């Protein structure tokens, strides 16, 4: 009698044997790799499907060149694997959809693949292409139709610009009248490395008529961007990719006679584009060239040319025109040492269109003369490269003479005057004493003397009476000089008033006020940190201020003001809110100045 242990062992042995047998049977199956055609004969307006099928997984698949056909779609890859009654079935295929390019007989040559270290080849097949047929036996799939009728194109205004010359990239989605697009989603936005970039907002997606490769299409402009290359040589413009939902008509109609559509999702890409950026020529390059590229005008002007000492005037260095206005520095004004000059206030009025930047940039200097005299402002030169003429141009301002009419003379002027006086010669003449009257008619008059009079004693006591006031004044002055914190606060408040003066004048006018306020905040950071912040994001400004160890509350207040300036463009703000923002800005600038 067989015990249960013997039955268990026997069952285990049989199971292992059967499994090994099945695996050996599977392993002993011959490797197959073959080409399958959807039809051996087709019309010129029909499509051919070619499948390369194998029963084992392989590597290094190499398709034929499909001479006489155009690849419409493929390769698409599919894999199937299953177990049926203990037998494993595996299949892998590479599929292509082909369109014939001419009538005749064509041979689709061998394809190769490496399986298990050995190279396998499919058999070649012959296909006959006849004239177009009235009703193609196999209609194109929705994916086929979408591939043929949907294209994303990046149109570049110039592929060989100079360094810092503007180029425009316009992304257009071309859609054939045979299909319709119901939705799209960006998958990959280009980052434009080695370019200064500015997006031009597309206000509305409006379809327009056009042609693509000689055929009528409708197209939509999805994105527009202006680029200024910052490096010479070959630069790549990364592709824009979209996931597009396409509705393809099927040729069938529903119960109510309405056309039926098949929906599919396609990924389209504008493709990688390369431009060749030409360096600026070194020949004849002016010594004062500072990277300006475009067509500009240059001027140096003053608000007045005659004034008194301690009065102020404004000198403006301005460049206007079309070119890379945000990407170069203005020449610095050179003034005589006798003129006190404050740090310039930068003003930018630049708009970016598809033609590039245009407008003006300027530095406004506040100048205060201390002494009487005439002070020349030396001519300034500004050089730029014009990509149209491919030549450098240098513009020079006129000399400006500042005439200070009233005020003290400088030490240099006094010494010069004394020297000139000492050098004057005296010419003697025999009649030089003729002006003396030799026979005067003298009469006695009563004379009152100042010495010993009441006025004499009052003036004598005045210095003694002023001593207590002088002591009080000196103590007050020493106290102010010793109050370091108070002095910092007073200087900070004065600086805040200086930068916010333009904004204060616009209180009550929402748009002008917040534009002036935002400019004041950026100008303050530029003046204190010696950097350009107009192109910085708020996150970058926060990072910058954290490095300067500015207190968190002060940074938050500064960022909140910038956010209010942005929100004011779209939301109503009351006069009370504007006044509150002005006071907050004054306090924030004062606090930040003390901490810096």
Structural write-up:
InterPro entries: BatD (IPR025738). This is Oxygen tolerance. The chain crosses the membrane at residues 449-473. Residues 1-25 form the signal peptide. With 596 residues, the protein is an alpha+beta fold. It folds into four domains: 33-138, Immunoglobulin-like, CATH 2.60.40; 144-277; 294-404, Immunoglobulin-like (Sandwich); 484-595, Four Helix Bundle (Hemerythrin (Met), subunit A) (Up-down Bundle), CATH 1.20.120. Helix content is 27%, strand content 37%. It has nine helices and 30 strands. It has helices at residues 4-27, 142-149, 411-423, 454-482, 484-505, 510-529, 538-547, 552-567, 575-595, and strands at 33-37, 41-43, 48-54, 59-62, 69-84, 87-100, 104-108, 112-115, 118-121, 125-130, 150-156, 167-175, 180-188, 195-200, 208-212, 215-229, 233-237, 241-253, 259-269, 273-277, 294-302, 306-307, 313-323, 339-341, 345-353, 356-369, 373-377, 381-386, 391-396, 400-404. Strands 11, 12, 14, 15 and 16 form a five-stranded antiparallel beta sheet that branches. Strands 21, 23, 24, 25 and 26 form a five-stranded antiparallel beta sheet that branches. A hairpin with a 2-residue loop joins strand 25 and strand 26. The longest helix has 29 residues, at 454-482. The protein is elongated, with a radius of gyration of 44 Å. Residues 24-28 and 414-435 have low confidence and may be disordered.
């Amino acid at each position: 009698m067989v015990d249960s242990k013997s039955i268990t062992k026997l069952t285990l042995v049989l199971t292992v044997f059967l499994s090994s047998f099945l695996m050996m049977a599977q392993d002993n199956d011959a490797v197959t790799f073959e080409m399958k055609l959807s039809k051996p004969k087709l019309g010129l307006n029909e499509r051919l499907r070619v499948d390369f099928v194998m029963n084992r997984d392989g590597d290094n698949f190499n398709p034929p060149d499909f001479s006489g056909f155009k690849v419409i779609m493929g390769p698409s890859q599919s894999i199937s694997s299953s177990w049926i009654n203990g037998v494993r079935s595996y299949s892998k295929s590479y599929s292509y959809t082909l369109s014939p390019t001419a009538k005749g007989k064509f041979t689709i040559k061998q394809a190769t693949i490496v399986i298990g270290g050995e190279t396998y080849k499919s058999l070649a097949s012959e296909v006959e292409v006849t004239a177009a047929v009235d009703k193609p036996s196999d209609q194109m799939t929705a994916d086929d139709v979408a591939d043929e009728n949907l294209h994303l194109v990046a149109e570049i205004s110039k592929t060989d610009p100079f360094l810092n010359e503007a180029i425009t990239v316009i992304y257009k989605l071309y859609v054939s009248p045979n299909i319709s697009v119901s939705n799209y989603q960006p998958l990959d936005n280009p980052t434009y490395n080695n370019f200064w970039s500015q997006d031009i907002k597309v206000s509305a997606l409006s379809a327009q008529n056009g042609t693509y490769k000689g055929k009528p299409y409708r197209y939509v402009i999805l994105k527009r961007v202006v680029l200024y290359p910052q490096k010479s040589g070959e630069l790549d413009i990364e592709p824009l990719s979209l996931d597009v939902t396409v509705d393809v008509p099927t040729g069938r109609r529903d119960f109510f006679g309405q056309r039926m559509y098949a929906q599919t999702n396609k990924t389209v890409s504008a493709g990688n584009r390369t431009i060749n950026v030409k360096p600026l020529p070194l020949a004849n390059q002016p010594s004062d060239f500072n990277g300006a590229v475009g067509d500009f005008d240059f001027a140096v002007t003053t608000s007045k040319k005659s004034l008194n000492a301690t009065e102020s005037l404004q000198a403006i260095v301005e460049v206007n025109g079309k070119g890379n206005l945000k990407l170069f520095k203005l020449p610095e004004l050179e003034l005589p040492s006798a003129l006190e000059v404050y740090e310039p206030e930068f003003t930018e009025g630049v708009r970016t269109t598809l033609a590039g930047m245009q407008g003006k940039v300027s530095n406004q200097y506040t100048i205060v003369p201390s002494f009487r005299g005439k002070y020349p402002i030396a001519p300034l030169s500004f050089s730029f490269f014009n990509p149209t003429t491919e030549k450098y141009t240098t513009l020079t301002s006129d000399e400006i003479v500042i005439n200070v009419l009233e005020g003290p003379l400088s030490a240099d002027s006094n010494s010069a005057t004394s020297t000139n006086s000492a050098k004057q010669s005296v010419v003697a003449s025999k009649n030089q004493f003729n002006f003396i009257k030799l026979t005067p008619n003298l009469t006695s008059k009563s004379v009152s003397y100042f010495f010993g009079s009441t006025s004499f004693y009052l003036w004598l006591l005045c210095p003694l009476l002023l001593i207590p006031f002088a002591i009080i004044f000196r103590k007050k002055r020493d106290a102010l000089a010793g109050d370091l914190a108070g002095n910092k606060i007073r200087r900070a408040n004065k600086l805040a008033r200086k930068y916010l003066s333009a904004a204060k004048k616009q209180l009550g006018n929402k748009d002008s006020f917040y534009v002036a306020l935002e400019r004041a905040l950026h100008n303050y950071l530029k003046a204190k940190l010696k950097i350009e912040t107009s192109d910085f994001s708020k996150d970058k400004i926060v990072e910058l201020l954290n490095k300067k160890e500015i207190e968190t509350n002060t940074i938050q207040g500064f960022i909140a003001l910038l956010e209010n300036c942005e929100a004011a463009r779209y939301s109503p703000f009351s006069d009370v809110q504007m006044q509150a923002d002005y006071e907050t800005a004054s306090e924030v600038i004062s606090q930040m100045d003390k901490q810096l």
